Amino acid sequence: MIKLLSRFAFNTIKQPSVAVFNTKKYDIDYLTKVNTSLPEEKQVKLSFFAEQLNENSARLAHECDTVCCFVNDKVNAQVLRKLSTQGVNLVALRCAGFNNVDLKEAEKLGINVVRVPAYSPEAVAEFSMALLLSLNRKIHKAYNRTRDHNFALDGLVGSNLHGKTMGLVGLGKIGICFAKICKGFGMNVIAYDPHRDQKLAESLGFQYVDESDIFYQSDYISLHCPLTPQTRHIINDHSITKMKENVMIINTGRGALIETKAVVNALKKKKIGGLAIDVYEQEEKLFFKDVSQEVLTDDVLARLLSFPNVIITGHQAFFTHEALMNISQTTLNNIYEFKIKGSCINQVHQQ
């Protein structure tokens, strides 16, 4: 009898209708593949829109109760109010970061927010090391040379990673994966994170230090922390002055962790020996698009691109088959859980 009642209750639940914004072909492919592989009762109705979610495009979700968006979509107070008037009660982020969402306004409107806290930390950690190796051993320069049949080695001298000190800012799932990779290279690993796990440090063989010590002691610095008011521009003029000469900085976290103009000045003065970034604080209008036929109006980014010791990629650290599958599976499961239970383990709450 209980089973029959439970099944009847489930059948009365309306199939979630989801407006997926900012979609590329791979979003459509993976979300559709995962959705159709689910049992019929767990499937959702997906409507795909190439437009980014913003004040103007929010109207496209008028027939949906859920919107699914990405890191560079705008989910500010104005957007949330428009979504609320259209009957949207759930924002499903297909990413880990949620700094683009006005959580205070969402709570006020009764709109819940869910995210994908961990899709493939190995994907991002491995890409971080790929950036470091390319930057340190000048692989990007060698690649361009050899395509022009120039096999000279002048100017391509790098440094051993073995024995050097890697400073990690943030030690979540990605930071831990990256720490393991660095230890595999024989590096000395130090880490700054407000939440310390001494047992983890002992098992992996790294040491927790204060924020200033990361800058003073590191030969290389890699950023893996979330973007919060405390971490915004954690790399700035003041922190750069504490760093070793020719330090190399890797950022696969969030663009605004770095004050870009300060880094440009430090590169010009040769204080920073190299920079590799997969994220950029003004990436919203550029990344995930082909703007190769347009004039680049971002003078700061244009200056960064002019340095021979800078590598910039377009937010692709997460971009593996495994990660895309995990993102799609977790996103759809979040929607299903919330619609059935009214809550979700991956729900984001205002802090």
UniProtKB/TrEMBL annotation:
<dbReference type="GO" id="GO:0016616">
    <property type="term" value="F:oxidoreductase activity, acting on the CH-OH group of donors, NAD or NADP as acceptor"/>
</dbReference>
<feature type="domain" description="D-isomer specific 2-hydroxyacid dehydrogenase NAD-binding">
    <location>
        <begin position="129"/>
        <end position="317"/>
    </location>
</feature>
<dbReference type="InterPro" id="IPR006139">
    <property type="entry name" value="D-isomer_2_OHA_DH_cat_dom"/>
</dbReference>
<dbReference type="InterPro" id="IPR058205">
    <property type="entry name" value="D-LDH-like"/>
</dbReference>
<dbReference type="Pfam" id="PF02826">
    <property type="entry name" value="2-Hacid_dh_C"/>
</dbReference>
<dbReference type="GO" id="GO:0051287">
    <property type="term" value="F:NAD binding"/>
</dbReference>
<dbReference type="InterPro" id="IPR006140">
    <property type="entry name" value="D-isomer_DH_NAD-bd"/>
</dbReference>
<dbReference type="InterPro" id="IPR029753">
    <property type="entry name" value="D-isomer_DH_CS"/>
</dbReference>
<keyword id="KW-0520">NAD</keyword>
<dbReference type="Pfam" id="PF00389">
    <property type="entry name" value="2-Hacid_dh"/>
</dbReference>
<feature type="domain" description="D-isomer specific 2-hydroxyacid dehydrogenase catalytic">
    <location>
        <begin position="18"/>
        <end position="348"/>
    </location>
</feature>
<keyword id="KW-0560">Oxidoreductase</keyword>
<protein>
    <recommendedName>
        <fullName>D-lactate dehydrogenase</fullName>
    </recommendedName>
</protein>
<comment type="similarity">
    <text>Belongs to the D-isomer specific 2-hydroxyacid dehydrogenase family.</text>
</comment>
